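Q: Hi! New to this. If I give you a protein sequence and the SMILES for zinc ion, can you show me the bound structure?
A: Yes, paste them in.
Q: Okay, here:
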Amino acid sequence: MFLSVQINNQTYQIDSTKPLDISIPLVFNGLQPSIYGVEKASAEAYEDEHFVGDTRRGGSCNFENLRLNPHCNGTHTECVGHLTNERISVQNCLQEAFMLAELITVAPENALETDETYSVKLDENDKLITKNSLKSAFRNPQSAFIIRTTPNDDSKKSRDYSLQNPPFFSLEAMQFIVESGVRHLLVDVPSLERLHDEGKLANHRIFWQVEPDSFEINPNTRLNSTVTEMIYVPNEIKDGLYLLNLQIAPFAADAAPSRPLIFQILSD
Ligand SMILES: [Zn+2]
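A: Thanks. Here is the predicted structure of the protein with zinc ion bound:
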């Protein structure tokens, strides 16, 4: 089905039957990406004295308890509730079903070879996604910004990020994203932050406009903005403008597993 979507007085046409899925499927008990060494997302048949939730074991249907940590087990979308004492839910913050998104590809730089900064001391193993690299790849600020980092391959779907330092954003890069008016940021790294950042979460605080070291929102806080981490954008998908449908599980929680779908724009 072809859909025409009007955004800011411009009409964009997409084929709704051809979504490009840039999430990582969450394979319970199977191969998954992970960070901080947390337990794998797991599934276990519900069982009581009268019933077993597994048809292979004689149950009438499959009926499993699932266990996961949305921040660590795969593609997830989070809101400012990640930082605040007040419990704020991602399903309340994300109000846009469709939005324009620009996909770009950037090469993280050796942190000690740039003049951009971060909240804790950097070392020779750190790789930074810099403002400089974003600026040269970024064409038109849109509601959403999708960042693919190189090198890019399928191993991102099952990588254990606690064994290596994934790239992260410089403070200047995050400030640039906010100043560009981007409300939804989607990245293929497991976090905006360095793996160990002394708990500062400086980039998350810049993105949502929460004061350093604060656990409270303020009048400038970007309540309706979201961050999606651990996406995977296959190399066949070209950089450019897309229509994004950011689907999340309706969890009343700061983060939820998500499935961002992007649609090629056929005409505008
Ligand atoms: Zn997260």
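A: The chain has four helices and 15 strands. Let me know if you'd like me to explain how to read the tokens.
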